[in-house]
Write a structure and sequence with these properties.
Structural class: mainly alpha
Distance between the termini: 61 Å
Largest sheet: none
Amino acid sequence: MYDQPRANPPRTAMTFEQMLERVRYEGAYPTRERAAESVRNVLAALGRQITADERVDLARRLPVEAARTLTAQIPDTEQLTGWGFVKDLAARTGTTAATARWDTGAVLTVVSQLAGPDLLARILKQLPGGYALLFGQAELQQPQHAA
């Protein structure tokens, strides 16, 4: 008998070291260690927000070390808005909201590149408002129709 053809497992587009270098560049961080700290903090926070297939699919596209950080978190029962995400990150890391927003943008811009447009659209659809800008995307709103 012949085995059924199997799809190759998805491979990440970059190594963890390459991811850190991209985040370091995006965030203009002075050291790789500072970039790594931002990656850990932001991915842990994101892991508390996304669930279901989107969580699994994103983990598959991240380097293994980043995927572990994302999936080690238990999703919160209540999702935060984009601004709430930044404020929560600032409180957990003991930084200012401005620093947390900077870190979030640097990390999630790279994550959006790894995710690709289709998965990113699914993730943004699952999350409350305000996340598109954090991922470096335009926040498009649907027109409201009067009933």
